[in-house]
Amino acid sequence: MPHKLIRMQRDGHQTRPSKRPVMIAIAGDSAAGKTTLSKGLASPLGPERVSRICVDDYHKYDREERKHLPFTALHPDCNYIEIMEQHLQLLATGQPILKPVYDHDTGRLVRPELVEPREFVIVEGLLPLHSRLTRACFDITVYLDPPEEIRRAWKIQRDTQRRGYSVEQVLAELERREPESAAFIRPQRSFADLVVRFAPVEGRDDPPGTPLSAEVTLRPTIRHPDLRRILSENGQRAIHLRLARDEDGLPVDVLHVHGYVPPEESRVVQKKLWSRLGLNGGADPVKSLGDMGNGERSEALAITQLILLHHMVTALD
Amino acid sequence: MPHKLIRMQRDGHQTRPSKRPVMIAIAGDSAAGKTTLSKGLASPLGPERVSRICVDDYHKYDREERKHLPFTALHPDCNYIEIMEQHLQLLATGQPILKPVYDHDTGRLVRPELVEPREFVIVEGLLPLHSRLTRACFDITVYLDPPEEIRRAWKIQRDTQRRGYSVEQVLAELERREPESAAFIRPQRSFADLVVRFAPVEGRDDPPGTPLSAEVTLRPTIRHPDLRRILSENGQRAIHLRLARDEDGLPVDVLHVHGYVPPEESRVVQKKLWSRLGLNGGADPVKSLGDMGNGERSEALAITQLILLHHMVTALD
């Protein structure tokens, strides 16, 4: 390598003064709710402060080529993992990337696009926590872990309504992907600072149509917001914190966000969480949260987003 | 930025053990002969040891979009210069890139491709020496500087025969590009270690059809091969070295490679230059050099390529 370059790199010569963004990963299997969760984070922060990328764009092969390959898009060998690592490092150090683009509608790889990291970079996808180097790029890591039957229902709904597949095709694809989900997607759960599970509360006999609750596992790998004052409020039923052991036996806090309580009660908690963020907001700042993308609103989603927003804003300091 | 990443980057954690390649830039205006020159370098080194890229792939806009823009593809604003700088740094430090691809036939930006740097990386294009940071990435820098009337003839020939333009279209395009050639392309000449000019020898009255000579300006910015023994051979007429002042008044050596001498005489010099390279080669190792791309062979081109090969092989040590 030429000495001039060594010298320029050593002296931290960048192409521009690089401000280092807050990086958050939202990992999870197909249709686990990654986009729904992350969209609601950009809006309250101000979209002009947020860059959002999807690392599924790092597919090596297009849909046609994959037909002749012995693995699915979930397999690391089907993705430019090394380039994903490189690009995440560049973004984490405040530098722009020319990101590949996979067109989900046509299944083709198309013209890449420039991404310049803003104050916050939200990275969602199937494999953002796959390697040691990608994980090191994030300030906050999240894994979405809905029960399989709920994820399947979501995937069928989305892929039949928006991607033109039949139910049978989606089910066959889920079957085909299962071994790779088990091998490469689900292991990422153990590297997440927060594991989010939207599901009905086990053991309760809620009527059909009751909104989903959320169970947010808070690993002590980062400092979580202190919820004690909110939790101890008289009559507060929207959230509950429980000390537990995670699957791996390690101690965690589990925040239960109850979907079955009246929305007004949840809103009280949301406003308290919001007021801590130091963000500007209109008359009802939390109304942009909890958007399920289908016109419905989930209070459990809104509270989960507020916990993540707390982390993002805190990491900025 | 997360502490884990700072630590991993400080410890030189790369995604793979990176071997740093020899980087050579071949800059010059459209149809100056960049591809012809660089093709002949890859073949004698062994194509499996060489990566070749063209930095014109970093166009921001496709041909259609450029129609509505007040500048041509030569303008830095028409190119992702910052990403080009980033990618050249990555290659120079032995790391792969996902390079954008501009399809010259259709004028469209298409799916990017993976480039992993091999032992030698040859970078040709309009603007590889545009910025301080790009220049720092190269071990050897070359600028192709044919007389304008020769370059125009080459461009008309290529663009009418291979890109489907009419002569009038090519002439109009040359006109349109001239201010940007002057502002952005030609200034790169002053940053090149070697300036190569294929032209008839001034002052000689050679018959039409006499092969072009080459004038290779050797700036003392890198150590050039010691040609004294070859130059002093009895009866040697193929090359001649002259001390001169360059356009900027600084001292340079100018190697004159005479196209008008019989090819056999030139071949003697070529074999001597070849024998110094320590490369393997068949019965006539220099026969892969000097290929003009149109079925013709230029001895002046062959000698120029041997000088460049000398630099590349030496930089490897």
Q: Can you summarize this structure?
A:
The structure is a homodimer of 317-residue chains. With 317 residues, chain A is α/β, with parallel strands linked by helices.
Any overview of this molecule?
2 copies of one chain form a homodimer. Chain A is of the alpha/beta class and 317 residues long. Chain A has 2 domains: 20-145, 3-Layer(aba) Sandwich (Rossmann fold); 193-317, no CATH class. The first copy, chain A, is 34% helix and 20% strand. Chain A has 10 helices and 10 strands. The first copy, chain A, has helices spanning 3-10, 34-45, 63-66, 81-92, 132-135, 148-162, 167-185, 228-231, 263-275, 299-316; strands at residues 22-28, 50-54, 97-103, 108-115, 120-125, 140-144, 194-199, 213-218, 239-245, 251-257. In chain A, strands 2-5-1-6-7-8-10-9 form an 8-stranded mixed sheet, with helices on one face. The first copy, chain A, has a two-stranded antiparallel ribbon with strand order 3-4. At the A-B interface, helix 1, helix 4, strand 3, strand 4 and helix 5 of A face helix 1, helix 4, strand 3, strand 4 and helix 5 of B.
Task: Draw up the topology in text.
2 copies of one chain form a homodimer.
Chain A: H1 3-10, E1 22-28, H2 34-45, E2 50-54, H3 63-66, H4 81-92, E3 97-103, E4 108-115, E5 120-125, H5 132-135, E6 140-144, H6 148-162, H7 167-185, E7 194-199, E8 213-218, H8 228-231, E9 239-245, E10 251-257, H9 263-275, H10 299-316
Parallel strand pairs in A: 1-5, 1-6, 2-5, 6-7
Antiparallel strand pairs in A: 3-4, 7-8, 8-10, 9-10
Helix pairs in contact in A: 2-10, 6-7, 9-10
